[in-house]
Amino acid sequence: MKNIKSLSFGVLLSVLFFSSCIKDNTEIRTYNDEMVELNELIQTLIAEGYDVDTTASGVYYIIHEAGEGDFAKIGDTVSINYEGYLSDGSMFDDSDDWSTDGVWEFVYGEQSLISGFNEALSLMNTNMEAEFIISSDLAYGASGYGYIGSFQTLIFGVKMIEIKPVSNE
User: Fold this and answer.
1) What residue spans define the domains of the chain?
2) pLDDT tens for residues 132-142?
3) What confidence score (pLDDT) does residue 3 get?
4) Is 132 annotated in the active site?
5) Which fold does the domain 2-164 belong to in CATH?
């Protein structure tokens, strides 16, 4: 997990700097508020030299370390380290919550995940390390979830440790 924390540090510093300009979290957020903040965050990251790419559905990502081999597919068993942050820089989840060694292993496609995180995993192969910025329309939307408020952009630092292909036997 230390690698994810060190790789995420630069992006998180940008998020923390950016979040000082964000409205008070007690205010009611709208989708438009989120889109303005998301656009400003992406522009800040690009200005700081990060190579930010995006998928057709709108998952933004920064590859820190390229992986090798096949990409994760539905039915594969994947092992990942990850940390999830809100746009204000506060951590809301990490793989340490799911295992004692910080490696979360599960069958990809059988775990209930937000659509943006599912898409992010499909972009990963073994040993890849990346940041994913996921808007609320690919996460928890207007309703939020627990500690995650409405119209909240989520940021994940993820390392794909291993992919065990689904057996076709």
Assistant:
1) 2-164
2) 999 999 999 99
3) 45
4) no
5) Chitinase A; domain 3 (3.10.50)
